[in-house]
Amino acid sequence: MRLASLLPFLFAIALHAQDVHVRVSPDVKTGIEGTTEFPTIQMALDHHPFAGPGGRVLIEIAPGTYHERLNITQNHPNITLIGTGHGPEDVVITNSLNASQAGGTFFTETVEVNGTGFEADNVTFENSAGNTGQAVAIAVRADRAVFRHCRFLGYQDTLFADYGRQYYVDSYIEGAIDFIFGNAAAVFDRVEIHATRPGYLTAQSRTAPEQSTGYVIVNSKVTSGPEVSAESDSKRSGFFLGRPWRPYARVVFMNTELPAETRPEGWNNWGKEANEQTAWFGEFGDTGPGAGLALRVSWAHRLTEKEARPFEPKAFLAGKDHWDPVAAAAKLP
Predict the structure, then answer these.
(1) Residues annotated catalytic, as ranges
(2) How many CB atoms neighbour CB 36 within 10 A?
(3) Right CATH number for 204-333 from 2.30.110.10, 2.160.20.10, 1.10.3720.10, 2.102.10.10?
(4) Of 236, 253, 251, 235, which is closest to residue 290 (Cα–Cα)?
(5) Are 244 and 269 in contact (CB under 8 A)?
(6) What is the pLDDT of residues 157-196, one digit of tens each?
(7) Positive or negative CA dihedral for 148, 149, 154, 155?
């Protein structure tokens, strides 16, 4: 075989060799720096061997409930958390902390992600504080973040998608009030968004019209629990698709199934009429009993097929480096 024909094969081996595999299991009794087996996830994050150029640190987590608060710092890029159970419910990272206890919303998160290129597959992230105020399950402040086959459980402010480009696919997000919030450029593809009480699904916080941030919910399904009523004459019933946490909030629902519990007006101005001039909320191709646009607020957008194209996952998250989030998710183990 000629050397030229061998080069691609050797190059692939070299890249693969840069990965580091780390195991986390309650069965591990000690975790010493430089080893690849640890009893807790945070210990693995703190002491894992670093991958080589172009490689990743794959932290393979045994089934169990991990009562931990995790911090993936900026100097730990390209971390992948992999739950090794049959489904995301088999590996649960959980904590219970609300804003009153912690001294503010932004100190409550069970998991904080700051490292670029973070990935998670087959894992549950939970804040179990319940209906006690703001309580974040995960705060994501990382560019090129990918979550596949994951669950995000909370009540108020479950998922803080705050910074960078983020892609959530084949996952489940649960909450009641503003439970997807922040100013990331985030796409939720084939995701189930489950409202447990009347409230607001999203609270995006874009602060200027030139920012490329916003939330796109595409090819997904919104569901609701028995506490959510569809009675149109009750101001407290049903849920809104979103409200603007900051004036230039941007959220788009595309090709998504909406239940009858969706409030007919769809969107809320957070008690500020001025937000109606700046917030950018849109819908395209949605289905289900809650998808009717006849009673939507007049300041929401009904997108054409051409207007919807820039919000497709690959287009919306491409950036200057032409990142392909769909391909990145497909490479997860």
Answers:
(1) 157, 178
(2) 17
(3) 2.160.20.10
(4) 253
(5) yes
(6) 999 999 999 999 999 999 999 999 999 999 999 999 999 9
(7) positive
